[in-house]
Amino acid sequence: MKFLAIAEMVLGLRVYMLSLGPWVNDLLLSRIRHQQNRPSQKRQAVFFKLEVLYILIYIDRTLILIEGSGMNIFFLHEDTEVCARLHNDSHIVKMLLETAQLLCTTAHELGFENVPYKAVHRNHPCSVWARENRSNFKWLQELGMALCREYDYRYEPEKPHKSQAVIETMYTGCGLGREVYESLGSRSMTALPQCMPKEYKVDCSSPQKYEGWVARTIRAYQNYYRAEKAGFSKWTKRDIPGFML
C-alpha cells in the first residue's frame, strides 16, 4: 500500500530528518506510531491530509537549510572587532575557515589564479554578497582579521590558526587581496543575506525611519544565535553577550 510504503521511506530517512529539528522529529514519530496501529479508512483519510502537510513542512525546512548550509556570516555587530568578540568559541574556530573560503571564492569568481583555497559554494548568498562590491569585501576582510586576533586572544595557541595565513593573503594591504579589492565595483555596503530559518529573519525590504538594514540584520542574527546556538555556546575570557541573556 502507498501509505505503508511512505511509512517505510520515513523510517529509512528518520536519522537524516532528525537534523531538520525536534518539531519535525515529533511529527515523524507520531506518524510511525499511527502506521503501526493500522488505522481505519476514516483515519487514513485524515492521515492522507497530514501526509501532504508533512511533505510541505519537509520541503520548506529543507529549502531553509539549503539556503543557510555550508556558509554563513554571523553579523552580530557592525564593528568587526566587536562582532568577532561576540562569536562563541566554536564559531571563532569555524568562521575563520569559512571567512577565508569566502574571500578566496571571490578571487576565483573574478578570474584570479594561485588562490590559496579552492572556490566553494559559488552561488551561496554569502558568496554572492562578498563579491558585490568593495565595501562588502572589505568588511569581510576586516572580520577575518578580527577573528584571527580573537582566536589568538582566547586560545593563546603555539601556532596561529591554519586559515590566518590565507586571510592575511586576502587582506587589502597588498598582494592578491589588494588586487581582488580593486577589481570590485565601488559602492556602499549592501544588505547582508540572512541565512537562517525564516522565523528569525527580520524584513529589510521596507524602509524604516529609525532602523536600517544594518540594525535589522544584527537583530536577526542575534535572534538566531540566541535561539539556535545557546546549547553549545561559551566565551573563553569573554563575558556572555547581553543578547544571549
Return the domain count. 2
Listing every helix as H and every strand as E from the N terminus to the C terminus, the arrangement reads HHHHHHHHHH
Mean pLDDT across all amino acids: 82
Strand content: under 5%
Quick synopsis:
The protein is mainly α and 245 residues long. It has helices at residues 2-17, 22-36, 41-68, 80-86, 89-109, 125-130, 134-155, 164-169, 175-183, 213-228.
Keywords:
245 residues; 60% helix; 10 helices; disordered N terminus; 2 domains; mainly alpha
Structure commentary:
With 245 residues, this protein is mainly α. It folds into 2 domains: 2-68, no CATH class; 80-244, no CATH class. It contains 10 helices and no strands. Helix 1 packs antiparallel against helix 2 (22-36) and helix 2 (22-36) runs antiparallel to helix 3. The longest helix is centred in the first third of the chain and has 28 residues, at 41-68. It is globular and about 70 Å long.
List the helices and strands and how they pair.
Blueprint lengths: L1 H16 L4 H15 L4 H28 L11 H7 L2 H21 L15 H6 L3 H22 L8 H6 L5 H9 L29 H16 L17
Helix pairs in contact: 1-2, 2-3, 4-7, 5-7
